[in-house]
Amino acid sequence: MPRTRLALPATGPVRLGPDAHAALLPATAEVRSGFWHARREANASTSIPQGPGLLESAGNLHNLRLAAGTAEGEFRGAYPFVDTDVYKWLEAASWQLAQWAPGEGGPQAGRLAADVERIIALVAGAQCGDGYLNTWFQLVKGGERYRDLRWGHELYCAGHLIQAAVAHHRATGRDELLEVARRFADHIDTVFGPPGSGKPIDGVDGHPEIETALVELYRETGEQRYLDLAGYFVGRYGHGLLGGDAYCQDRVPLREAENVEGHAVRQLYLLAGATDLATETGEAELRAATERLWQAMTTTKTHITGGLGAHHDKEDFGDPFELPNERAYCETCAAIASIQWSWRLALLTGQARYSDLIERTLFNGFLAGVSLDGESWLYVNPLQVRDGHTDPGGDQSARRTRWFRCACCPPNVMRLLAGLEHYLATSDGTGLQIHQYVTGDYTADGITVRCETDYPWHGTIAVTVEETPVDHPWTLSLRIPQWCRLGPGGEFRVRCGERTYDAPVTDGWLRLERTWAPGDRIVLELPLEPRLTAADPRVDAVRGCVAIERGPLVYCLEGVDHPGGGLDDIVVDATRPLAVKHRPDLLGGVTTIVAAGRRRHLPDAGWWPYGPAADAPHSDGEPLELTAIPYYAWANRQDGSMRVWLPTS
Amino acid sequence: MPRTRLALPATGPVRLGPDAHAALLPATAEVRSGFWHARREANASTSIPQGPGLLESAGNLHNLRLAAGTAEGEFRGAYPFVDTDVYKWLEAASWQLAQWAPGEGGPQAGRLAADVERIIALVAGAQCGDGYLNTWFQLVKGGERYRDLRWGHELYCAGHLIQAAVAHHRATGRDELLEVARRFADHIDTVFGPPGSGKPIDGVDGHPEIETALVELYRETGEQRYLDLAGYFVGRYGHGLLGGDAYCQDRVPLREAENVEGHAVRQLYLLAGATDLATETGEAELRAATERLWQAMTTTKTHITGGLGAHHDKEDFGDPFELPNERAYCETCAAIASIQWSWRLALLTGQARYSDLIERTLFNGFLAGVSLDGESWLYVNPLQVRDGHTDPGGDQSARRTRWFRCACCPPNVMRLLAGLEHYLATSDGTGLQIHQYVTGDYTADGITVRCETDYPWHGTIAVTVEETPVDHPWTLSLRIPQWCRLGPGGEFRVRCGERTYDAPVTDGWLRLERTWAPGDRIVLELPLEPRLTAADPRVDAVRGCVAIERGPLVYCLEGVDHPGGGLDDIVVDATRPLAVKHRPDLLGGVTTIVAAGRRRHLPDAGWWPYGPAADAPHSDGEPLELTAIPYYAWANRQDGSMRVWLPTS
Fold this sequence. Notes:
The structure is a homodimer of 649-residue chains.
Chain A: E1 25-26, E2 28-33, H1 35-58, H2 60-68, H3 83-98, H4 106-126, H5 135-139, H6 149-152, H7 154-172, H8 176-191, H9 210-221, H10 224-236, H11 264-281, H12 284-300, H13 332-349, H14 353-366, E3 384-385, H15 409-418, E4 425-427, E5 431-434, E6 439-444, E7 447-453, E8 460-467, E9 473-479, H16 482-485, E10 493-496, E11 499-501, E12 505-506, E13 509-515, E14 521-525, E15 531-535, E16 545-550, E17 553-558, E18 570-572, E19 579-583, E20 590-600, E21 610-612, E22 621-630, E23 642-643, E24 645-647
Parallel strand pairs in A: 5-9
Antiparallel strand pairs in A: 1-4, 2-6, 3-23, 4-5, 6-7, 7-8, 8-14, 9-13, 10-11, 10-14, 12-13, 15-16, 16-17, 16-24, 17-22, 17-23, 18-20, 19-20, 20-22
Helix pairs in contact in A: 1-3, 1-4, 1-15, 2-4, 3-4, 3-7, 3-15, 7-8, 7-9, 9-10, 9-11, 10-11, 11-12, 11-13, 13-14
């Protein structure tokens, strides 16, 4: 099959422009059952439907009515970006609506569509005549605009409005919200521009986000000036317009940066926008910067869960290899932004590593952010909660919370889960690439394959060709996960009927080229032996420790499974085998891993916990069976301690 | 010699009341030369004299003039507690003046006395007619008072004013500042009281400090109501008057608390006040709480440097054993507050452990806070600065700073160093106790002993009896430092002429009772072999690491001494001997410790720094001589990496 330009997908958060310089194009997938289907069901049946009520009780909708003049009272909420909670919910609801064909979805779909319509009307009603829209500045700041770009979040809010509008348009074909977003974007385009452009303000927002949104608005509308405006914003960070500090991405221009830094979500949204921009413009320097920064981030600043962020103070990345456990600041939004950025790099470059990180983040650092029932949330996603932990409460709590004061994460989770099928597969003119394995159908270019799997609990993934061009060879590319290539869990296998393939894996892809016929069936077996993982020795926080992993899942211990003491005196015996035990009764059904360990005898050191190294206590102690659960499922039972990294002695 | 009530010392920050329930009384000491004399010289000749100029340029004195109506302009400074920088400087200057007898000290003393007089006049001029004094609230808040006790710091400021006033009175016998402080304290006493007292406000300050100051004002004036007011404040924390959170010490009443928590300096000042209170009232429950909390703090929340605080966010203590290195938040003020609290416990209980912690803190966590030249400062005192560190600048910088935006620490260092002689020795009616060893004279109850030592560089401490009651046996008690009792550096020895004592050490004290004669000479030899120290295994941050120590000093590596690479790939060989090398040329003269180590070969892990535990790289690498310097002397050369805890493999 010759490499040709393919049809654009109808829906999805990334739709490439006609001149995009991408290696891959997003393909359509449908998730039918299995692990992610269950998470999406909780999202569709609980999280998203509860959104309007929570936005009402938190005051977000009230603020929109105030701005429209249809209600009276005080502005509610503590931040200038509270409107984005509404926009992210609208985006989530739109992707959700897109999953139902007209007339499908029953009363649930009808209610959701009505909520969306009602809330879009509130948004539209709050918009100023010239297109400006930010209830905080309209109501609290007396209409003052763009005077506090560092903290004001006005363009950040516009970015989320644009993303919601594009989603709504793609999902429903309707343009009420898109018109609101375009009016705001057009207004911004009259205000912001470089010196000499005749625009009144040369500036960028303290919180990047509008850049990726503007590229998508260009993609949706075809209007070049939105792409140009995105390019202007991306280029103006790092030039001191915001005071020159790393927090706001203003210390160094992105094209010159050597590592990710500053506020993690700000950095990652900016990089998503920069990658969009490089994809559409083909600029080599910008592309090189995004690839370089991704490599630096994963090598030196990523937690094993895919979580990103090391400082509670400023929500910043730390120094290289500064990856604390109890003080990890792995904001759920940063995990989401990482997935969004990595997906754009996957499309741009075609390399599997980006989807490797997406998989790890989805199953761990991202998914931990929402409870199993879809009703409560974690913001910072630590890798450890100590015995004797004094919980601060609030957004940074180690306990799940019904809603946050800064409620950025919950609707962000909703929109990613609702649009998850758009991050699973691609096509490239030579065939179909499966990036993530779910039970469902993957479709592109006249090809449909059906995938059946109980992944990540079982490693068998059966792919059956349903539709295929006749007499046209094409390549089915299966991503062989990076965790599997690292070993030592054994080799993966690929079978077709009785035949075992011995195809090489190139850059993470197993490529099977042939002339396919309907009914052809490929079975991929991924080795799910549990494994003990250690870190680069420069990650000081986990020296002398191992983590338990199985497939894409990172495991943890919870105090509730280890009565009779805490977790801080436990050691794991790394020389003993790990046992796998599926527990359908536990946490919605999880595979646990049982390890041999001990509870240390801790000598009474008097009042000083430091002493001669030669006298350091040995790891004797009571034998103890350690039960590890998947990290994503922690904090779904009772409060208590937790740890991912386990001392070996 | 019968146990009798002894004369109160003339000067010093703690003067016990006539009915105090203390085991020990502060004795007078005079530091003549040696280690601490040099630090105090830098304080006296550089830090303190530069204070007025810095307070002028930072706006603190300007604010006082504004409040007095003798200047025009805007309030300067970012915090409601900027007045305390002035008060702490006045306290430092007062203790400094006390070291010069009238007519001594030359032009330096004259200039300082004039500065003190001038600045006291500014303070007095700013005071409201009813005694209230806080320039922030007078100038910025339009005279509004006590409406924001959680953040307002009004009583905190009053506390530092009182401490300065008491110091000035004790040092000079003059009462200009004491009258200002009394007027303010009297005013506060009309405002604050329990329900039913008829006082308008039942409340406490978000930042404890006034409690310890009020007890001292009681001691200085004999007025019981100041003690009662201190007791009221101590008792009202933990009852939700401030919102009920740990940050402001309001989560749990102090008498019920099980561990230190919340903002470290707030906690420690409160505990100093509580210990003062228990000392004066004899209350067993409060005394037990302070002893319990000290034990919990040292066992679970103290860095090896004596530094306290684990969170940049909120400047809080962490959970038990949460003692990060690069993100240690060991505020210099917390080290000072710890010394102040421990000294009060030493007096109350007579136990040597409190002075053990004081020694460790003085030589390490405290002294690192000021540069060797007395001109620049560290606020957070981390235990590690990584290769590739991106310095945030500002108060939390790992580089020394000339003055801080929140300048609480520098004048706090000045006041402790200027009054350091008051933390060195005690008497108890049976003799003299030497808590800290300096070259100088120690005097109490007709006893004077002279101490000569080059400690901490050398372990020989010679104590000569200069004056003694005739035919009256008394006990010379020498604190045998806890670091020495921990071994394995060998045993200490005590000689008198040719005779070696084999006296037992009880609770840290070597007690030598006899009828002394002038000229009697005791030589204490402390073993200064360098040693490798490990931590309780629950201190996750330092697993697999050792620290180098010698005597009371904690050592560190600095990048500047290890060119050709960073510090993050270095390991120390814990099986090889440590060598001691005195370097008179280096950092004002320090003893360095040379250890055998290697620079690891780090494998290229691709883009992911986690991999199979079985494949973890071994510690091969280039042999490297590691040069350790005392921690207190770090950051006195060039910017760069530093670490206290060194991996062993």
